[in-house]
Each structure stands twice: as C-alpha cells, then as structure tokens.
Amino acid sequence: MIHEQGVPYPKTSVQLNTVTLVPKTGMKPYGANGTETAANFNFFYLYSGPSTASSKIPNMDAPGDITGETSNIESEISYAYTKKVKDPAGTGDTLYEIWYGVQDPTTTPTNDAHAEQVWLAVPKGDAVENVVPVGTQNVSLTSTDKSPILVYGRPTSGPTDVIGDAPAGSVFSSGYTVTEDGATTVWYEINYNHRQAWVQASNVKLVP
Fold it and tell me: What is the pLDDT of residues 102-146, one digit of tens each?
C-alpha cells in the first residue's frame, strides 16, 4: 500500500538459506476496515514436525482463533531456514525448518519464550528464497559457555526487557542493528517469533 502512494520498493540482495513471505493475498486489505477475509488471509502456520499433518505449535490466544498470532507468522518477513521439504500430507506446501520463539502455556509468566526448531508451511508461490531487503543477513547466536542467549523485547539491557531465550547455534534473520541509548552496546534485531526482538552483538556471529 505504501508503494502505491509512490514510495519505491526497497532494493534487495542475496542471503542463502532464507525464505521471505510475499503472498499476493497480503497486498491489500479487502475486507471492511482491513478485516481478514478468505481472499486476503495471510498468516502462515507453524508445525511441530515436517508435515501439515503434524500438530501446530501452542497457540496462546483464544481457542479456535485462526489468526492467533502465537502459532503463526505474518507476511513480508524473512526467516533463516535449516531444512525444507515438500509437504508429505499432499497439500503442495513447502515446509521450512526455522528457529522460532515458542511461548509455553505452562510457564509463568506466559510471555516467556524459548526458541525451538519448528516447521513453517508455505503454499506454492507465496514466498521467495534467498532474496532479502538490502542489509538483511542471517546470524548465529553464540555464548562462551554454550548457555542459552537472552532475547530482549527492546534494545536495552534491563532484566525486565527479557522476553525469552535461544540456544547457542540457533540462526535467525536480522534486518538491522542499533546502538543502545547512552551506552556503547550494539544490538541486532532478529525475527524471533510474532515479535521482532533483540540480542546483544557479543552473542552474534554473522552467517556467510
């Protein structure tokens, strides 16, 4: 919609093992006031195994809510993938194995998330591989003692800003970096789950 007002699309570059969701249904809000309809539904579901016959990951929203954001991801976002398969259930979808901050309904507080490898189901024609906005790169998270890396909801070092963690070796797409206000700490933005999140540069290794 911004492009239709005269703003050019961003330039792109190549980043291997990356999938970017670009469904045609995500171009315009067809329903009244932007309401989701069957014609423009653009959420992509996440599964526990490499098949749409597998169970979906936990949904923290209302039962039966097909737009519950904790069990799916939105369009126009890039994700690093480690494997891909054609859906053995016969839907024609391609499933990509990605790292995702899964929220556990049994934990307190329930907004705590732990990155796990899950499977993203993408219908034919709704994604491109290895083409990303300029500046986007894949990053691997590291720690000196192999302990989980803390993931923050904003690029600040306060303990109350932690929204989850990710194991050493997990890989995410990152769109940009920022330097923390009043400090020298550099933060990498990562596509962690249905939220953008942040990790410190000291825990980041760039993926070639």
Answer: 987 666 555 589 999 999 999 998 899 988 877 789 999 999 999
Q: Which residues contact 188 (CB under 8 A, 6 or more apart)?
A: 139, 174, 177, 198, 199, 200, 201, 204
Which residues fall within 8 angstroms of residue 148, CB to CB, at 6 or more apart?
114, 165, 166, 167, 168
Q: Which CATH architecture has domain 137-206?
A: Roll (2.30)
Would you say 101 and 197 are in contact if contact means Cβ atoms under 8 Å apart?
yes
Residues whose CB is less than 8 angstroms from the CB of residue 32 and which lie 6 or more positions away in sequence, other chains included: none
Sequence ranges of the chain with CATH classification 2.30.30.40: 137-206
Candidates 146, 157, 135; CA nearest to 201 is: 157
Cα separation, 185 vs 157, in Å, equals 9
pTM for the model stands at 0.85
